[in-house]
Amino acid sequence: MTATGANPTIVLVGHGMVGQRFLEALAERGLTATHRVVVLCEEPRPAYDRVALTSYFSGKTPEDLSMTDMEFIKDHGIELYIGDPAETIDREAKKVTARSGLVVDYDVLVLATGSYPFVPPVPNKDAQGCFVYRTIEDLLAIEEYAKTKATTGAVVGGGLLGLEAAGALKGLGVEAHIVEFAPRLMPVQVDEGGGAALLRTIEDMGLSVHTGVGTQEIVVDESGAVTGMKLSDGSELATDMVVFSAGVRPRDQLARDCGLTVGERGGISVDEQCRTVSDPHVFAIGECALAADGRVYGLVAPGYEQAETAAATIAADEAAFTGADLSTKLKLLGVDVASFGDAHGATEDCLDVIYSDSRAGLYKKLVIGRDGTLLGGILVGDAEAYGTLKAFTGSVPPVSPESLVLPAGAGAPAQLGPSALPDEAIICSCNNVTKGTIRGAVTDHQCTTVPEVKKCTKAGTTCGSCVKVLGQLINAELEASGVEVDKGLCGCFSQTREELYEIVLALRINTYQDLLDRYGRENARGGDGCEICKPAVGSIIASLAPTIGASGYVLDGEQAALQDSNDHFLANLQKNGSYSVVPRIPGGEVTPEGLIVIGEIARDFGLYTKITGGQRIDMFGARVEQLPLIWARLVDAGFESGHAYGKALRTVKSCVGQTWCRYGVQDSVRMAIDLELRYRGLRSPHKLKSAVSGCQRECAEAQSKDFGVIATANGWNLYVGGNGGATPRHADLLAQDLSDAELIRLIDRFLMFYIRTADRLERTSTWLERIPGGLDHVRDVVVEDSLGICEELESLMAAHVANYRDEWAETINDPEKLSRFVSFVNAPDTPDPVVGFVPERDQIKPDLPLLSIGMRPTEDVLEGTAQR
Amino acid sequence: MTLAPETTDLKVQLKLADDWFTVCDLHQLVPGRGVAALLPDGRQVALFRDRRGELYAIDNRDPFGGAAVLSRGLTGTHQGRPFVASPLLKQRFDLRSGQCLDDETVLITTYEVRTA
Ligand code: SRM
Ligand SMILES: Cc1cc2nc3c(=O)[nH]c(=O)nc-3n(C[C@H](O)[C@H](O)[C@H](O)COP(=O)(O)OP(=O)(O)OC[C@H]3O[C@@H](n4cnc5c(N)ncnc54)[C@H](O)[C@@H]3O)c2cc1C
Ligand code: SF4
Ligand code: FES
């Protein structure tokens, strides 16, 4: 029965996501060794991650999206013909003919041709400026058009893909409209309430949504380019481009042409083995197939299952695809949307439990059966519970359903851990992995981390929505089996940061290698450490430098190798490989001359300038070799490093205070400057921020700082442990009505105690909440001196203050250090060509490299930051 | 404490096709840190040296972020495998094989490197 030569031939038509998974399944079953495998791929590139298509607009390159390892193709002897689609199939002769004229005889033919985007038959639908959203080529065309010809864009279709497309348009700087025929967004996945919550959030993002209206005609100008759209309610929407995203249709033309049975609404009819019902030698999988349960699945997970089924069947193993779950969890434009099970409540007699807060854009609905069985649900705005809820679907959850959707704080929210789940519960639906299998990975295969379990079970490797539950399960399993959860800093040290600090201070250890070789874990000694402990120990050494006899200059000797990448270049790395420069402006006070110098430097080097949230000026877009030139001029004008790159003191903000303000009761600017100059350069577990306000009106926002000072008629109040950022915390009052000297002494002690006892990357706010005894304990130690260490804390700070030197001044005066500030060691005068910029609002912004698809049109690329 | 062994005159070379391409003096590589080098065809290589003096060379481009910055990452050893962590989003890459330790589907080019 062999067609050519010795081995039977499998021909795969279509190299999309499902096609690639099919090839992997063939290889896993050893079929690539026993068969000749030929793949006809229509697109100009091998299989890529279509699900993640939109991430191209957040910087992923087509290369990053690729799912095809060419080594894999080569190693398994797969013949892959790129850009050569199948044109005809002769089932009688069992031959496929490709566009290039290539004819392949097959023994088994597998169709994985996917779908095509459906474009409604409206007049001018093919006009210039009309697009679809399916392939990388579509995206490139949309990007090109949006950049050169469009300021407004409309997306036809408010489903999953339509929203993604609209988000992409918005990201390209185009004002985006969504036109949806149904009365709500995402009509397939969510119900009316969910649609309302979604609508609100999406409109808040600046997208215009038109629901309940259809597109009747595309309006074009004389040149044939889109200028607008006529809608079914008689109105007209002005737009420069249109992206059709009104659903997909199975690509079954090839199958129709060769007489294979297709469904009434399209899709190649197959049985439970994914074999076409008309021809036992032909299979169909993925979005082009009409499965045995009468459905065409438009999601990747069922497609993968079909791929496995077809491969198993070809290998004469038993397998069947009888249908799949349509649960989805997506992050659309930053909004969580999930639906699972019987989301629309189609089951007879079922009841809904709904929690909705449209102000917060939240909507949660559970569908419950008469006997309390969880049947399905919809979550919009917060899909935290998706993993757990989905796994409980089909069973009666151990707590009341209301408590599963109520927000924390309302009533008694149930923290239903995954440990309550039965072993058969599916945790990863993309890869069909049960809780039992995951537990097995931990107990039988000694996996202890999420990456290990991913590798072992494939769970969590596709859409990633189950990873959180995965982590919880692994920890629960480890704890249950009595494994002590390691509190050590990292894989190299079993001590905490605090313990390492004590060791370094007590034994005066002043190199990292010495510490690692003497106190590291057995297998880490003599090694190179890791990216966690090197900067942490580097910071401890820097904080204690004068006391333990280390150099106070962070680029000296071994210390240079320990610093985080930013500290190593004394600047902050930006997304395109350029750097930002932040000179210190103590207390936010700056002279006109100072401003002029900064302005001149930024102008001469073509830098983007911005006032930061910390009362100073950031200059972005410097290449590494420009840093010393820029700093030479800044140092010359009396500026110092602002340590924007370091886990160190950042800024001490001030309000204008008593000097000018009619309410001020103390000189807050002077105090802010004093504090900033005192603690500048102090390396700490995390960054340190401060502020001083001249009265209780608090214009400097001191209570949101690690240490904040507010003036009173009698002196200063000191607040500690404040934080902005992701988890804001108001600072706590540590002491009142302090004199200048008392204030400074207390801050000295407080900071040194924090540096001594905090974990790596632990801000004062989290530290204060974590340490036993909390604020009271800290007050006992630093105000009452309950541990008798205050003298030592003060002298450690005094040593820091006395030894402070500006590290940029030091660097520009050291030729050996300067030689490191080049893009290339072998071409010190050549700038990194990957660092590019494009103009925006009269300044520059980074241009991300689009490697494999070539450079952007040259007219809008500025040549670096050349002096212009 | 001196970390650099006596290395004054040694050159670091990369294997390109069948020729050895001289990049820089060995002493320009600080143990535990990297440098970037430009190849004649415009590609960029990140070169590293560990504390034992072992040399490694990989492609300089971070495949996740797109910028050519891997030479500026922190190095270390993970289960005996030398690695560099990207300074952008911290993914780690095996310096010998180019394998990303945090995403097994990602592999970057490595180069043979020697001193002469
Ligand atoms: C430039 C600036 C934004 C601006 O344009 O205004 C900024 C920029 C960055 N911030 Fe910020 N933050 C800036 C003020 C703030 C503020 C406001 C303030 O300081 O008054 C906050 C909230 C206050 C606070 O920290 O408590 C702030 C909270 C954060 C956080 C969250 C910290 C937290 O505890 O949750 C991070 C992330 C981190 O540190 O882990 C962060 C991290 C960053 C990083 C370092 C992110 C990064 O790694 O690239 C950015 C570096 C920019 C650069 O390359 O220079 N930035 N950041 C501000 C610089 C102030 C300065 O002059 O030094
Ligand atoms: C923007 C976007 C976001 C998505 N998000 C999600 C998501 O979050 N979750 C989810 O589950 N799914 C999502 N999907 C759907 C998912 O991408 C598809 O379900 C999946 O790609 C289907 O795989 P497939 O191999 O069947 O089809 P495809 O990936 O479309 O592959 C079919 C391939 O066959 C080729 N082909 C067609 N005819 C021929 C021929 N005659 N000869 C040779 N080759 C041919 C096509 O060019 C194509 O490359 C998304 C889709 C898009 C477009
Ligand atoms: S905090 Fe008080 S002193 Fe400072 S500016 Fe505001 S009102 Fe004036
Ligand atoms: S559910 Fe998608 S990866 Fe697990």
UniProtKB/TrEMBL annotation, chain A:
Cofactor binding note from Swiss-Prot or TrEMBL: Binds 1 siroheme per subunit. Binds 1 [4Fe-4S] cluster per subunit.
Enzyme Commission number(s) from the entry: 1.8.7.1
Binding site for siroheme: 699
Cofactor: [2Fe-2S] cluster; siroheme; [4Fe-4S] cluster; FAD
Gene Ontology terms for molecular function: 2 iron, 2 sulfur cluster binding; 4 iron, 4 sulfur cluster binding; flavin adenine dinucleotide binding; heme binding; metal ion binding; NADP binding; nitrite reductase activity; sulfite reductase (ferredoxin) activity
Domain Nitrite/sulphite reductase 4Fe-4S: 646-785
Biochemical pathway: Nitrogen metabolism; nitrate reduction (assimilation)
Record NCBIfam families: nitri_red_nirB (TIGR02374), PRK14989.1 (NF011565)
Family: Belongs to the nitrite and sulfite reductase 4Fe-4S domain family.
Protein name: assimilatory sulfite reductase (ferredoxin)
From TrEMBL, chain B:
Domain of life: Bacteria
Gene Ontology annotations of biological process type: nitrate assimilation
Keyword check for Iron-sulfur: yes
CDD domains in the record: Rieske_NirD
Domain Rieske: residue ranges: 21-116
A UniProt-annotated Pfam family: Rieske_2
GO molecular function, one term: nitrite reductase [NAD(P)H] activity
Keywords of the record: 2Fe-2S, Iron, Iron-sulfur, Metal-binding, Nitrate assimilation, Oxidoreductase
Name of the protein in its database record: Nitrite reductase small subunit
Native source species: Streptomyces aurantiogriseus
